[in-house]
Write the structure tokens for this entry.
Amino acid sequence: MIIFTSHAILKLVQREISKTIVIKALNSPDHKFKSYSNRTIIYKRFDRLYLKVVYRIEDNNIIVITQHWEEKPKLTK
């Protein structure tokens, strides 16, 4: 199951991003990286921009923390 935190929902509205496009990114990311606190960062290209999604896995659920558009993914840390 995919669960959006209240912060993620707020940012969906503010940034005019649909849940559908976030789910599409989660299902087939172009890039995927581990981050701190058991978080994962993915990037999915849509036209000329990349959607960045930050999430964590908890009890076999994907918990979406936030998402936003970037011109290009940050591929190195």
About this structure: The chain has one domain: 2-69. The chain has a mean pLDDT of 95.
